[in-house]
């Protein structure tokens, strides 16, 4: 294994979109703009959640964690992608690939769990409003957030380590724009049945299970909302959940397509553009969705800007 992997220690070649040189220039401009918007939007969410005392609630505590996650996730992938899109050199060092693999998988898995935690918060807020402050006390919030982070770290330690132990037999060309478990498994020159099975189990644990919990939570929320007689009450209850529901739909839709759909049933370009969506577009949309659809965030932002 050491001899077969010795050549890749010099690094990998991220093929990305190099077969479409005219598209690369367009993608560079679009991705750079979206990345700057992601950094700006998520930074604003974090600062507003910290500076405005009215937003010191469980919902915004988890939202600030989500924004921090998105900042770190995109920053682990996009800078290298922009370098490769701009220049003729498409390489990434072995250490850079390893770091990208561990960090992006940890943060992506953490976000899957965190979105489920946020749906539980919304369930308590709508279905048990009188007990909300008692149930979602600070200690529980910190415990749930820590559980999300630790679960993400645990899965990347297992999946990434198992993937990097595979012999690549000198294969250095990664047909993707960043180092991800499914594409690195394809480089292996041995039977990868165990790795594929482990990846499927991890995908079920971090995609299907959290999504099922989210659907159960929103099923309970829908029942509670339908029991509200006043139109204004229904609108208010729906407003507290709509932003999170939109984020969940966008995030899980693209991730499930990438990780649970059989690789043979999609083209290489499909996989790249879907990955591009959840690594670039989704993190940019999250603060936009929460800001535009949330009066409290907009009010807090205006208040802070007024003081400045």
What features would you highlight for this structure?
12 helices
SSE blueprint and pairings:
Elements: H1 2-5, E1 12-14, H2 21-51, H3 58-75, H4 78-86, E2 91-92, H5 94-127, H6 132-135, H7 138-164, E3 173-174, H8 181-187, H9 193-226, H10 231-259, H11 268-292, H12 295-307
Parallel strand pairs: 1-3
Antiparallel strand pairs: 1-2
Helix pairs in contact: 2-3, 2-4, 2-11, 2-12, 3-5, 3-11, 5-7, 5-9, 5-10, 7-9, 9-10, 10-11
Task: Give a nutshell description of this structure.
By secondary structure, the protein is an all-alpha fold. It contains twelve helices and three strands; from the N terminus they run αβαααβαααβααααα. The longest helix has 34 residues, at 94-127.
Describe the structure.
The protein contains twelve helices and three strands; from the N terminus they run αβαααβαααβααααα. The chain has about 300 residues and is mostly helical. Helix 3 runs antiparallel to helix 11 (about 270-290) and helix 5 packs antiparallel against helix 10 (about 230-260). It is globular and about 65 Å long.
Sum up the overall morphology in one term: globular
H/E series, N to C? Answer: HEHHHEHHHEHHHHH
Oligomer: single chain
Main sheet summary? 3 strands, mixed
Share of helical residues: over 70%
- Strands ordered across the widest β-sheet: 2-1-3
Number of beta-strand segments = 3
The low-pLDDT segments are: none
